[in-house]
């Protein structure tokens, strides 16, 4: 008899969390995790949900949470998940951002040795720009892993292209290397500006409808603004270091900017 009671108790201990988990319908990983099964796990620090807004709940907590609303940890607010269009936008944007920062880091990595041989006074500038790009790459690597966004399938191609571009413009000299930076940062700065405008549009809509903006959206907007400003700082530094004295400047500028536009367009889709 004692053994049966203990066995029953152990069974209840094992199965009760599983039953609660199967009964939960809270959404997870707003814009990334595909619904391969009908079971949805609650958010965790590893698989967090980016939500657009939070608002107070007018009704007591229900034993069966709505599948369209997930409660915060303190159970005082409810979070609205992203729409399919917003999920698609953020998935595409973050994938492109990660590819772009990878390319920028590789360009500086391969430019620096050749530039410093003839212009050692540029060491601190090259190290500063490379360190900032590496930091941007860490940020987007984290966001892709956190929300299970796959990198672009063109990752190996962009790796090779950025390495060759950095090495080639470095051999051409300081002016060509700076012209490369100016062209790349012009396109990347504009790309980040478009993302910031889109997110601020979401924020405005939420505020006008009386909703409170979610903390992750606020954080993402802040990060994009900071990274955009640092990219535009690199552009100004490059112009100040003779980017427009490169020969042939116009040809380099057009070719590199066209390449960046094409890489962005492809990475958004592949």
In angstroms, what separates the terminal alpha carbons? 63 Å
| Beta strand % | 5-15%
Number of helices: 7
What value does the Rg take, in angstroms?
24 Å
Write the topology of this structure.
Layout lengths: L1 H22 L27 E6 L13 E2 L5 E5 L2 H35 L4 H24 L8 H18 L1 H35 L3 E2 L1 H26 L8 H21 L1
Antiparallel strand pairs: 1-3, 1-4, 2-3
Helix pairs in contact: 2-3, 2-4, 2-5, 2-7, 3-6, 4-5, 5-6, 5-7
What does this entry show, briefly?
With 270 residues, this protein is mostly helical. The chain contains seven helices and four strands, in the order αβββααααβαα. A four-stranded antiparallel β-sheet has the order 2-3-1-4.
Could you explain how this protein is built, in words?
The protein is 67% helix and 6% strand. By secondary structure, it is mainly α. It has a four-stranded antiparallel beta sheet. The radius of gyration is 24 Å and the shape is elongated. Residues 1-49 and 53-77 have low confidence and may be disordered.
